[in-house]
Amino acid sequence: MRGQKSILNKLTCLLMIIVIGFTSLGLTSKEGEKKIHRNITIQNTDVGKLTPKEAIKKLESTYPLKNFNISYNDKNWTIKSEDVDLNYHIEEIVKEAFNYTRSSSKLENIKRKGKLDLKKSHNIKLKATYNEAKLSEELEKICSNINIDAVDATFRVELSGELKRTESKEGKQVDLSRLKEDIYDMINKKKNENINLPVITLYPDVSTKHVKSINSVLGQFSTSFNDSTSRGSNIHVAGEQTSDILLMPGDTFSYNKCTGARNWVNGYKSAPIIVGGKVTNGEGGGVCQVSTTIYNAALLSGLTIDEVHNHSLPSRYAQRGRDATVSYGYTDLKFSNPYTHPIYIKNIVGNGAITSKIYGCDVDRERISIKIVEEYTKNKITVQTYRLFLDEENNIMKKELVNTSVYKSN
């Protein structure tokens, strides 16, 4: 009898242990089925043993959908979370947490509950989404209130010789990339804070200091022509197109780039030109006289000659070795500014003459002389053009071979 009671007690204890075990796994408790299992967290917030409604309320309190408050000096902007469709999808994630131990696989549910009961927590992250297009639209509204372009200083020489300058102005621009990164970071962290608007200062390419440094003529050269011909008309057009040009330190002047194609659309007429060693009519006749005049002014100003070509025949308006032929798309006149200050090209055309003046800073002015060395053979004349840099006593400090020209002798 006693043996039977002992066996019965043991069976009763075993049954209780099994019931308790299954109860702890949430398999027999109806109440447990309505709650999220223990040790489940969402965005590191404990939602275990909470009903879905309780979990939603807790998460909405912990991670509210706040507005983005942006400020700059005395200006403030607010981007509402609903205006950019910001959403943490709390209800969806709570449902995922609730169903974590309620999958279609009973065995998997037992495994998951077992781990959770052994205090191995399971964390689910909130999924933050927003409308990128709407956010960009809101940020553009802010940028439009801040962004101001920098303004370059200007320099101009009037025909009277008066030097006119305008001052430069700094600009401002919202660092949009950095601003977006700050907002993205807040969205990812689900924590909105006040944002100090990142603003970049824009500096002008040409400053007031730059144009104030232009105070003297570095070099100039003049040639004459018949003002009443179509060739004279072309010289006027080309002279204007290559005038009033500011070259910053290191910048390069291109004659062809300034004038474009020499055709009637750009204001050029048919006039005598040299082609293949012969004089013939063609569009833009006379433009080489303008390029030659500018070239000599550049030589005397100490500028770096990057590209120059001579005519096949000597020119009437310039010494051999000092002409500069140009042909759009083929040959060009190019020179660059070697100084730490800007230079300014000014052409004056009228009364049968064209004068090219190159202005710059007086500290850059050089004493320069041009030397021509000619060598005659039966069919050609070879000319070497040297630029001599002189000291105050006219001693040669530097001798530079600028170009070697070859002309037909007949």
TrEMBL record:
InterPro entries: Glycopeptide_resist_protein, Vancomycin_resist_VanW, YoaR-like_PG-bd
Residues of the YoaR-like putative peptidoglycan binding domain: 77-194
One Pfam short name: PG_binding_4
Protein known as: YoaR-like putative peptidoglycan binding domain-containing protein
Organism: Terrisporobacter mayombei
